[in-house]
Amino acid sequence: MATQSPTPGVVPRGARRGWAALPFLTPGTLVLALFVAVPLLLVTSYAFFERGRFGGVVYTFTLDNFVRLADPLYLNVIATSIGTALIVTVLAVALGYPTALVIVRLPPKWRTIALIAVLLPFWTNFLIRTYAWILLLNNAGWINQGLQAVGIIDEPLKMLYTQPAVIIGLLYMYLPLMVLPLYSSLSSQDAQLTEAATNLGSNPFRVFRTITLPLSVPGLLTGCVFVFVPAMSNFVIPELLGGGKTVLIGNLIRDQFLKARDWPFGAALALVLTILLIALIFAQQSASRRVIEGPRERKVKRDA
Amino acid sequence: MRSSRLIRIPFWFTYVFLYLPILVVVIMSFNSSANLFVWKGFSLEWYPTVFANEAVMTGLRNTLIVAASVMVLATLLGTLMAVGIHRYTRGGLVRAFAIAPALLPDLLLAVGLLSLFSLLTVTLGLHSVIIAHVTFAMAFVTAIVLARLASLDPSLEEASRDLGAGAFRTFMRVTLPQLAPGMVAGGLLAFTLSLDEFVIAFFTTAPTTPTLPIAIYSMVRFGVTPEINALATMLLFVSVLAVIGAQRLTRVTDAL
Amino acid sequence: MRYKAVSLLATAAIASLALSSCASGGGEEAPLDPDADLTKQSLVVSIWADYSPADLAETFEAETGIPVTIVNHATNEDIMGKLTAGGDSGIDVAFVSGQYAQALNEAGLISSLDKALIPNESNLYEEATQLAYDPGNNYSMPYAWGTTGLCYRSDLVAAEPTSWNDLLTPAPDVTGKTTMLATERWMALPALKQLGMSVNTTNPDDLAAVKEQLLETKPTLLAFDDTTFYTKLVSGEASLTQAWDGWCNYGIAEDPNIKFVVPSEGSDLWTDTMTVLKTSKNKEAAMAFINYILEADVQSWVAENILYKVPNEAAMAAVDPAILEAYPNLQMTPAELLKQEVIVDVGEFSPEFTKLATEVMAAG
């Protein structure tokens, strides 16, 4: 199955590297270099300069922006953001994994419909959807009225403008980003493999644990990163559903660029966030590789 | 192969969760009160007013142009990138580089791109939004196609090459069809993300070419109105029709 | 090798940025040509959504022959982010609040106004030409003005509020049913005024005292809310909110039990203004636009439909008395407004206000 390097013996060695890679890698790399790397270098450089009085940057070198980061206030916000994003990610896996698994096993016609249905709500607008949650969650909202009508609760639950409301909003926003990569990697699994295992008498749980789960790890990890990262830096939902009583690192960065007009400090915050995220991607990539290659390599060694 | 009952509970829960707010939006679009929190009675009055709203109509057209272009470009670039990475690179560096834009805080990318565009004195417009959206959308496509590639069986490609097919032919006839689900998922995601992206579009578009999220953002200064809910309802309705139509016409399912 | 190329590129980029900012910062502007053919110019005007007549573009073009595109921004911060990012934003006329106009001017981003082309300035109240953020209206022209106070449901509060203290230390019947503004300068305002300090303070000790007060107030709040507080009043979710006078009127329009009061400790005087960007190539047309807005019938439309006070004496005189009756805060005179403190930009100190807001909002 999949390995990072090409399987030896398939193609003449040498031909695979070098020139053959160019048509694949060049266009994307150019786009990324010019429109991601250069802009980021620009912004990153701001972190080492002083703020302009009314926005922008004065080109005097300083490291003050990083010293300010050590303030417990900001460390606290970073910790809250990581905590919130983690909860959202765990919930997204709990909902998204079974969902993707069921979708993959649907008949082809329903599979497409189910897949598109995951995305469809997002063809409206994020603000509209977020306001809908305000209607659902407030004290006189639909959920409270429903629960009271059924008699489950007597007093309305205070949901809106709390931390859980922020988590619900973020989960709602990013759940599809968990389902799609999971679907993509689950659907490529060889159905015959699981079927064979089942026919040979493995119980479904064992089939899941030994075959389905390990093979879906790349999609799972991709989904986790896709959910975790934007959940950490979203700033609209904490404001609307959290009633402005919760601050995540995204709010902090936005405030520096748009409110305090302190671009250098905003850039420093963003730089820290970026470094955290890049570390996360590396971890994800190497974890994903270990999971795919690990068992096979061990097996190969044993066979030899 | 059948799923057990237990696993269907979170599956259904997911869809209820995803569609509950949509239900709210649809119902409130028929509210005769302009206040979002008060139901006064059934009314269709908001539907015609949407079409008269020039800001919304311009925004809608701009957004569709951007999202469609982004979908095509991002799927193309992202798929090539993923195949290139999968085949020709070792280690995580190029991967991380290719996927990073999906994970950058949008504000960072927005401010960076705006700085770059003003440095190069690029006139802003829909083209600058398309470029900006392609960067992160492409990263999503790359990641999804890579996940697909990682769980594919390379023996098919080997077989094709062993049987004498050239590299190009093998890629077109064997690799690409296998990648199709990843590409479709990635392209859909690219379209969806671009359709609803606000922060980057806000910074990289010209004031005269607002996208729909920008138009809506400035309209909800006083909260969401039934008119905006009516717009959202129609968007949904049209998307559903488009999906059904596409399915009838091309049997999308075959590709999956 | 590659690293060298990258660092070279970065250096070049930074150098050219620095150069371009020098180029735009220095030098005198060319004087405006009073005889310019305005029909050859066209305008892009950025204003808050629903803050001007819907047919403004048509009526302006019909009167002057200048095509104009109206675009919207949601907040001062949004438009400032765009205008201060460097380069030509493509906007000719931007509507921003007074203290932001002041900041834009000090950053060298907006033009001085050519008063010869804006004769309608004489329609303004005398008081509206000497406001502290821009005495003489050299680079900004007032469009609407007002103050900040308490907007409340008179049928839901046991006692009518009269003091900022009613918000900061709420009575048991309104605890958990109050909101405060989230934008930092206004978030600090109630506590500053209650403690007898200036809304334009640049003293860190003042903000420390404000922070202490706000940390006590936070657990009693329903939410921090800049945009939908009046709908919370209408739905009854909130019964007492900190509000801008004009926005409170949207609540009054839906529920006559909603009332507005300026607390006894005093408040601010804010002004929304029109500014012309230095990058504009249509400055003569921009002046004509500002002049058009200051016409009495245009601004009285604003007062009657947007329900904000306008600093235009001729326009206020033309407002339908029934509307003044229905929305009492429209009746505030310039003299009454000027008893409040004009809010101005605090420059270098502004991050301290942002930090205060962050500290309060992030507090457990």
UniProtKB/TrEMBL annotation, chain B:
Location in or out of the cell: Cell membrane
The keyword NAD is assigned to this record: no
Bilayer-spanning residue ranges: 12-30, 64-85, 97-120, 126-150, 171-192, 198-216, 228-246
CDD domains: TM_PBP2
Residue span(s) of domain ABC transmembrane type-1: 60-246
Key words, A-Z: Cell membrane, Membrane, Transmembrane, Transmembrane helix, Transport
Family: Belongs to the binding-protein-dependent transport system permease family. CysTW subfamily.
Listed name of the protein: Putrescine/spermidine ABC transporter permease
Lineage, opening ranks: Bacteria, Bacillati, Actinomycetota, Actinomycetes, Micrococcales
UniProtKB/TrEMBL annotation, chain C:
Alphabetized SUPFAM superfamilies for the sequence: Periplasmic binding protein-like II (SSF53850)
Signal peptide interval: 1-23
CDD domains recorded: PBP2_PotD_PotF_like
Source organism, top-level taxon: Bacteria
Record keywords, A-Z: Periplasm, Signal, Transport
Main location per the UniProt record: periplasm
TM regions (residue ranges): none
Keyword Transport appears in the UniProt entry: yes
Compartments it resides in: Periplasm
PANTHER family: SPERMIDINE/PUTRESCINE-BINDING PERIPLASMIC PROTEIN, SPERMIDINE_PUTRESCINE-BINDING PERIPLASMIC PROTEIN
Protein name, UniProt field: Spermidine/putrescine ABC transporter substrate-binding protein
Species in which this protein is naturally found: Microterricola pindariensis
